[in-house]
Amino acid sequence: MDIRIQKIIEGLFCLEDLREIYRGALPTALSPEEEVAFGAKFDELERIVDEIRTGTGHPRVTRIAETIELRLREEAAINIQPIQAAGRLTPEARKALTVWGDGYSVCDACRKPFRLDKICKPPIATFHEELAAFVGMDQARVVPGARRGFQAVASSLVQKGDWVLLSALGHYTEYLAVEQAGGVVHEIPANDARVVTADAAAERLEALVREIGTPPALVMCDHFDYQNANEHEVAGIAKLAHQYDAPFLYNGAYTVGVMPVDGKGLGADFVVGSGHKSMASPAPSGVLATTDEYADRVFRTTEIEGDLTGRRFGVKEVEMLGCTLMGGTLVAMMASFPHVRERTQHWDDEVRKSNFFIDRLLAIEGSACISEYPRKHALSKVDTTGSFDTVAKTHKRKGYFLSDELSKRGIVGEFAGATRAWKLSTYGLSWRRVEYLADAFDEVAEKYGLVVRR
Ligand SMILES: *Cc1c(COP(=O)(O)O)cnc(C)c1O
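^ thats the input. predicted complex w/ pyridoxal-5'-phosphate below
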């Protein structure tokens, strides 16, 4: 790792310490002791700046609060871990975190009717309108993760004993949201190509409605699933759900924030996205959007009343427990949003990079792509049983040889030790980085005598 990375972080920390002096000082002026402390810190900053300029020095700060290590992998390496790719913060989000990180920071200017999505400074109210439009829906709320979106919907629409139809490749949090609401799940099977089709949904839906006697309380499907990132027939499944008067939830954890999503165009009653997975936002963050038709149910306001005091709580929304993301998380999400909205227009280039890399990997004899191919997503599941795993069989480091070789080349995030089926994402990598990545796999392959077709 370039020592300048370490030194930039030390410089940032040093600036934070300078800043802290003001947080303890009188608003009028620094005291003589504080001026001395400021001067000493400033000298330290100058030394660090010098080390940044000359690329010299040794790591001086390796922990935060003694126990927490520094996380510099996004600066020092190419990280191909699928859940990290589109959640990496923009510089704007990182700046937002530094000045809006304090507790309930966004609540400084909270005015009647006292609800997060109504705050105008910073422009949270406008952000909510933009978010709804971004996913092609009428109304949106920010939620602490996609899972909290599923939870709010299931809690509103699923009664004890109700059933929910979901994809057999669905995320575990969809299942848990139904469980918490007291419902049961039935699954739409994926076909041999690991795709969930509208035909399969129709068959299952028909059989289940005949057997159970009632339509499902909710139908959910991921547009692209987290296992293979195959595209599922969400529009067809939504249409089908409506034929049975069941609402459809579009799970966009791997789409909202990376590709254009038109919720109503797809027939969705709910669109759920993940901020920390796909919207360049800190965890926990996400979006739940819906139509005017369903907003009254899922965003219903409180009706409870204290029996002694008669206290009531106005327009607070029950499923949101009033307010959700109240500080740096939300502001960082907002700070990334202009970039996120823009980048969805370049999804085709991300898909091209994905296919470029997969083609290069497939040229290493014995490698296969488990995900549908050609790729329609940046995340792919590959099978290197016939290539890198043949090396692992006799290597003293077993499957770890591959992670060792990759990390030597500054590539991290593949599942350490896995040389059979594993996942990666090329999302957000520049072409230069993607080519470097493909070259690195070639180099490792050739080093161990695998055949690389040119
Ligand atoms: C990651 C993921 C989730 C969970 O998202 P959170 O924002 O962490 O709650 C849900 N569904 C799918 C398909 C995912 O990939």
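The chain has a mean pLDDT of 97.
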